[in-house]
Design brief:
The structure is a homodimer of 129-residue chains.
Chain A: H1 8-17, H2 20-29, H3 36-40, H4 47-59, E1 63-65, E2 74-76, H5 79-89, H6 92-128
Antiparallel strand pairs in A: 1-2
Helix pairs in contact in A: 1-4, 1-5
Chain lengths: 129, 129
């Protein structure tokens, strides 16, 4: 059964994930805490632009900031990702069915090719006899 | 390892999922094909408003429309949900670690309570002896 969840938190999480820079920031944080300057590095973006993305991620609860006055490192918070995963998982049977159908189709094509090859061989054998 | 995927398709999928009405539409389609009128029913929304949401879902590849001229039913397409799930799954260890830590903490609290209860009993026993 698919749950009819309409949590506003899920909307905030999905909206935060709907940006490639924000997903790349999360991917960097997956290998450890980073300062804003460190995060900005590979993106060739201004610090204010990165800070804006961090604000969206923080509001969605996807990151937290340290309390150190000088260096306030960002770290990944996975709670909302788990919620998003739980929601998507309720649809798993649909994509698995799709791949089952694809697998059935490929098996059918393969069987047909094998049958054709056998028939051809039999024909050739019949001709050469 | 977390993959550094920045697929634009993922952005379109997450943006489409970032709305409670669109998630509710997908949930309804999980139980079978529906016409636009049937989908609009429970939402107390105008048909144009529902159609707008359906357009977003269709652009994201999350639904497909039938070809019947009169009744063009919508059906769920799970491919993009699988991609979104694959992306989120790369972060699974983070929320599992979080729950492991929580479990450790709860076990520690429980052990402490048991120890305190035993100590209290021993004290009482010592007093009454």
């Amino acid at each position: 059964m698919v749950l009819h969840r309409t949590s506003p938190d899920l909307s905030i999480t999905f909206a935060a994930l709907a940006d490639p820079t924000r997903r790349a920031i999360l991917a960097r944080l997956a290998s450890g805490e980073r300062s804003v300057t460190e995060l900005a590095g590979p993106f060739k973006m201004s610090l204010p632009a990165v800070s804006k993305h961090l604000k969206v991620l923080k509001r969605a609860g996807l990151i937290a900031r340290g309390r150190e006055a000088q260096w306030r490192p960002c770290r990944l918070e996975a709670g909302p990702l788990k919620e998003a995963s739980d929601w998507i998982e309720t649809y798993r049977r649909f994509w698995e069915e799709r791949f089952d159908r694809l697998e059935d189709y490929l098996r059918e094509v393969q069987n047909r090719q094998v049958r054709n090859r056998v028939l051809k061989k039999e024909k050739r054998y019949g001709r050469n006899k």
